[in-house]
Amino acid sequence: MLRPFGLFSGLTVLLLSGCKTVEVDLALRGIEPLEAPAVQALFSEAKAQYSGKFYRWDAKFRADGTVSATMISDIGVETGTGMWEVNQAGELCRAWNNGWGAGRYGCGRIYRDGDDIVMVQTSGATGLTGYDVFQVNKLVPAAR
User: Which residues on adjacent β-strands are paired with residue 136?
Assistant: First the structure.
């Protein structure tokens, strides 16, 4: 059963679509992709937010593998639900029920670079292109 949530602890996520240059840079600095247990812990019961030039996207990743999101733009509001999981390679994978991500199951490698979390798309729809910055906050139960 999900409980109401209060405080958030923040991390930044950069979603990079197949950007091998970023992976080379991370490797040269000794930064390896996170392993599956760390990715699972990061996204389980987490809120992700993207605020870009054309829209804002808010999502909640639940421990049961479901994800729900709202996208607000000049043309209106869209909502979607889907599923997420971490595969054996430690990649974050997700699929939406409304055609987001071109309706394809897609995965990405996750890196921790200081306080930033970097996602490099590895399969499925490339999603957003360039350096799209997401805020990922762990949902913390409110103090009693």
Answer: 11, 48
Closest CA to 134 of 61, 35, 57, 77: 57
At position 26, the amino acid (one-letter code) is L
- Cα separation values, 37 from 34, 81, 86, 90, 92, Å: 8, 23, 8, 8, 11
Each residue's pLDDT, cut to its tens digit, for the chain (144 residues) gives 333 333 334 445 555 444 567 788 889 999 999 999 999 998 999 988 777 778 888 889 999 999 999 999 999 999 999 999 999 999 999 999 988 878 888 888 888 887 777 788 888 765 554 344 456 776 655 444
Q: What is the amino acid identity at position 85?
A: E
Contacting residues for 76 by C-beta, under 8 A, at least 6 apart: none
Q: How far apart are CA 133 and CA 113, in angstroms?
A: 13
For residue 2, give the nearest of 66, 59, 45 by alpha carbon: 45
Q: Are 70 and 47 in contact (CB under 8 A)?
A: no
Q: What is the CA radius of gyration of the chain?
A: 15
